[in-house]
Amino acid sequence: MLQRVLPAAGPLRRLSFGLSDLAVFLGALVLLALVAKVGAGAFVAFVPPKTLPAVDLDPRNLPYYAGRSTLRMFVALGASFVFTLGYGYLAARSRYAERVLVPLLDILQSVPVLGFLSITVTGFIALFPGSLLGLEAASIFAIFTAQAWNMAFSFYQSLRTIPADLSEATTAYGLSQWERFVKLELPVAAIGLVWNAMMSFGGGWFFLAASEAISVLNKSYTLPGIGSYVAAAVAAKNMPALGWAVATMAVVILLVDQLFWRPMVAWSDKFRLEQSASSEPPQSWVYDLVRSSKLRRAAGALWTPVAEALGALLSGLTRVRATEPPRANSAVIDTAYNGVLLAIVVGLIALGAHFILSSVGIGEAGKALLLGFYTLLRVFVLLAFATVVWTPIGVAIGLSPKLARIAQPIALFLASFPANFIFPFATLGFIRFHLPIDFGSVLLMALGAQWYILFNSIAGAQSIPTDLREMAADCGLTGRQRWRRLIVPGIFSAWVTGGITASGGAWNASIVSEVVTWGSTTLSAAGLGAYIAEATGKGDWPRITLGVAVMSLYVVLVNRLLWRRLYALAERKYHL
Amino acid sequence: MTETRDLIVVDAVSKAFPLPEGKGEFTVLDRVSVRVRAGEVVALLGRSGSGKSTLLRVMAGLIPPSSGDVTSGGKPLRGANADVAMVFQSFALLPWLTVIENVELGLEARAVGRTERTKRALRAIDLVGLDGFESAYPKELSGGMKQRVGFARALVVEPKVLFMDEPFSALDVLTAENLRGEIDDLWNAGHFPAKSVLIVTHNIEEAVFLADRVIVLGANPGHVRGEISIDIPRPHNRNDLTFKRLTEYLYTVMTNPDMAIEVGRQASEQLPQVAAKAVSPFSRPLPHVRVGTISGLIELIIDMGDGQDVARVAERLALPVDDFLSILEAAVLLGFAEVKDGRVLISDIGRDYATTTILRAKDLFRHQVLERVPIVAAIAKTLAEKENKTMRADFFLDVLDEYYPEAEARAQFNTAVEWGRYGELFEYDATEERLSLEER
After folding, report:
1. Theoretical Cys-Cys bridge with A134: which of A108, A124, A229, B29, CB 3.0 to 4.6 Å?
2. Is the Cβ pair A323, B114 closer than 8 Å?
3. SS3 sequence, A43-104?
4. Domain A352-576: which topology?
5. Cβ of A569 under 8 Å from any chain B Cβ?
6. Is the domain covering B3-83+159-255 a CATH 3.40.50.12780 domain?
7. Does 1.10.3720.10 match the CATH number of domain A43-274?
8. ipTM score here?
């Protein structure tokens, strides 16, 4: 019956305006209308302290709030992309820039971004007086900081690992800088960039939720969005509203995945560097729909001449000139450059130390270090706990292809679901069962971080070659021995990757999970996260600086002393 | 030969790459002079480490020489050489562009208009026999077809000189043979879209088959050992007696790195040059060969009958020529075989080594290594002189670093360790990176 009603794919393609075109056209229209409607809200007046936007807890407002939040996420993604191209390109192309930009990226990646919210919020509000744009920009910036570093690093890495023969071919055939960029450098980086952007985008929801409703310098700021909706629901002790928010968030994540990330991943697959076709290319129905529409081809025909003209212009401007003979005294310049860099770094550290010590004293620094140690313990307990619970489950899933196909998307979804949406439920539980927050905060941190351990265990188990598994079965390895000889070495690399990500996430999460509220009840744990959160609320600059500095110090030290070594060990000994 | 017919002139070019951590530099090319004239096919023949690819890249303007001059079309070369187009060993096709987009790459860079570009690209694709594959992506093509795209991309810009960097060595034997023949036919037909061809290869037959002139490069550091002109009518017939004699002569030359090359094609009895300077045991490079393959080669030659033509053994083995020559060189180094007038002769020790039991073979091997392979002998001696009979790998790597670039130093060390381990001279703990004397 169906066959008679629906035309087969063949004739459909011959129609001048097919169903796919209709779908694409309507989809584009709806998207434009939504962006216009939701985006207009960002320009309303905001004159603190009199005119403040309020959040209405009626669930019917949730789609609008979710739209506002999603728009923020995408604006941040766009900003991250532009930043990535500039930063990564500069770092990969200039030897001198590289020496500053790469370590800086390393630091930015390890610094707890949430600690900086207070600084950025005040800055951006001052930048756009009398408009909500300031708060909007501050929130977008917070999301940006969750995405940009990873993406920039991925782009830089891709540029550094361009296959030598391809690079030589573009030089030998005289491609201009611009042609090289669009034909070689961007395509080489595409897959890594899309994956990193997708992962960081998931992490961005967490920062969105944390940055929409924030109290900074004794003032609370609220930005209409799904994050502030949750905050308002918590303040009003409104359980149903919370439930609606969680459901909406889940729908939004799924929609963005289906309508944006899947198509991106499917599209980027054509930039695979292998010279043979991949066995299981990623699929996306949206991508297929857009690709088969005539509308796209028509738009392409319009766009091509413009792109050609633009490309020719940019190529003309970026022709490679004949190379200059090598500089003779580059060693002298190098030494001078390094000297200047060292002086700047030492100067900055001295300045920071002076600021902290002169305003709060050495005793306060000791206190921050001690609190940092408590948080460090929490991070370790969390890692141990997540490993014990999730590794066996992950391995079981990874070793069974059927389970993996179902469970992997779920794990990815859980990882990108902002854990701070669940916090209120947990807080309520702590209050009811009198669980001290000093322990409870570990649980809260785990809500977001544990998934990295899970899906890396899955990936690790999947990467154990079949012949090794068969060998283990053949030799009769079971139970403990099988784990010791096959599974632990097999998933070690993946576990280290998961551990690094999880601990990074946990440090950041400590700022929002060591202090939690329900209505007017506030639970506060002894830890560096709570220390920073309290200082931020009060606008205590020296303590904010001290807290963030100490946390960065801990993160960097743990990275150097533990993760780097484990990583090297994994590379050397357990590389499959 | 008048000056004006020279398309590219390389005059006393040296190239050195800095070693890491400021440990001085490593010389790849040492005062090399070559020229490419209009209307000829030149082959640069050399083993790995002879700097032949580096020389090609210097001539293509991809890397600047450390000293010396390169002139192209009468002008000193600055930056990428616009007179040449290059065919790469690994094809170097952009996987996200279709065949025709790949072919148009060079034209686009030269700002050729869209219609003209398409017309010329289609003609080039037709020329290499890829009609109908214009909109295919490289990953849909076989290796041979990919390299055809590589040729089309180079020929479409009608370069003065076509550069080929081991263009057939990534292909299987039959595909390579086929494509090589077609390119040769195209050249012989007289309307080749380039005036001259320069091919880098380590395949002796390929060089004699394609080239009018073969320039032989020596290694460590790369230098010109000599030049042989192939004065036989094109296309070069493999069954031609001169062809055979030239190939045999080149095999002898290539397996005896110290032999001088006679100008002209009279191949006669040669005396190895005596190296006058005192050398460190670590400066003589080892061929990177697994021990097992050496006895495999000797056994094969014994089976085929002693005194075989090197060319025939190479053919029989169907190994990449460079790999084959390395194994043969190792056998010669160990005194198991000898190459004379293009023939392999197995020595008595070699015969014994290949046919005896494992334990005795190891004894023979150990004896030969200590006698004839200075680097392994030196490592064993150093270990024996130490009180605890053990030493970190870093020590030897540092010594090797003075003679080789970093990756090659590591490779030399690995080969030396393998040979030493097989001969039960010393043990190596890879986790600790520590060598220790085998207790016997």
Report:
1. A124
2. no
3. HCECECCCECCCCCCCHHHHHHHHHHHHHHHHHHHHHHHHHHHHHHHHHHHCHHHHHHHHHH
4. MetI-like fold (1.10.3720)
5. no
6. no
7. yes
8. 0.73
